[in-house]
Amino acid sequence: MAGGPVFMAILTAVLALMFFAAWKAPRWVKETGIFALVFGVFSTFLGIIQMLGAVQQVGDIGTAVLCGGIKVTLIPTVYGMIIYMISLIIRIAEKPRI
């Protein structure tokens, strides 16, 4: 929830969709993993824009507050990367053996 409840809920839904795709439509695993990665980066950019808007309104802030805001905005990107890595692992496990 620290990365934003909307973004984290969407990424969690994409993770569930990816596991369903691995079961029913294995060709969609790659696309859902890539979508999670791109959506995580997109949500990070939106979070940085929101954070900078708040900094602009407040004015002078400390570096600890700024670093805390950057840390929170990067959480969806890390979660998206984890989902993408899981999709890679699923794709490797599903490859037909020669």
Derived from helix and strand composition plus strand pairing, the structural class reads: mainly alpha
Q: Radius of gyration in whole Å, from Cα? A: 17 Å
Report strand %: under 5%
How many separate domains? 1
Helix content: over 70%
Would you count the extended β strands for me?
A: 0
Figure out the total of helices: 4
Order of helices and strands: HHHH
Q: In summary, what is this structure?
A:
This protein is mainly α and 98 residues long. It has four helices and no strands.
Tell me about this structure:
With 98 residues, this protein is an all-alpha fold. It has one domain (5-94). Helix content is 84%, strand content 0%. The chain has four helices and no strands. The protein has helices at 5-24, 28-58, 63-73, 75-94. The radius of gyration is 17 Å and the shape is elongated. The N and C termini lie far apart (43 Å).
Secondary structure: elements and pairs:
Elements (H helix, E strand, L loop, with lengths): L4 H20 L3 H31 L4 H11 L1 H20 L4
Helix pairs in contact: 1-2, 1-4, 2-3, 2-4
